[in-house]
Amino acid sequence: RKEVEQDPGPFNVPEGATVAFNCTYSNSASQSFFWYRQDCRKEPKLLMSVYSSGNEDGRFTAQLNRASQYISLLIRDSKLSDSATYLCVVPNSGGYQKVTFGIGTKLQVIP
Amino acid sequence: GAGVSQSPSNKVTEKGKDVELRCDPISGHTALYWYRQSLGQGLEFLIYFQGNSAPDKSGLPSDRFSAERTGGSVSTLTIQRTQQEDSAVYLCASSLHPGTNGANVLTFGAGSRLTVL
Fold it and tell me: Tens of pLDDT along A23-33?
């Protein structure tokens, strides 16, 4: 298994739809996880941290499943402005700050 | 500064020339990273600096690539004898000291877009 795997998409969904992305990881010792958002031709920006108990911020919910080693991002009531690439981030093994970015899942919200 | 600052924002160079890309991290961030992103591709790790420790250079693609970080702050990524395949956006990020709450959260600069003709 790769360190971090994501379906690159694209996911094309209508406005108002609910969409979910998964990200699988190989390092079972990883403790903290993140979702970043990257708009076209822009730098990645932190969207959410992923805690063991899950994390919710408005229309966005992140969940962690340690047993199956994946994290998920759920977006409810999709807006046109949600169109972006969503990057999953997992700390590397070795206990220091190096992290691995997934290739990203591209979301296109359609009017 | 308030954010991670990179310069130049755009650089067009001829094959075989050397280029230098600069990154000024957030004040107080001890960790600094360089990534490369080719068009339509994911982020490729290049190098990581943490304080005065030896950098992790495991991602540098060839010996034409080097980076330094002077005084634990500003970093310069140097590409010698550029090739067309070096064309990409070079992203710098910084984060807090290990063990600090949020130390794994990276803040990125806007990137330096390099085009090698």
Answer: 999 887 777 89
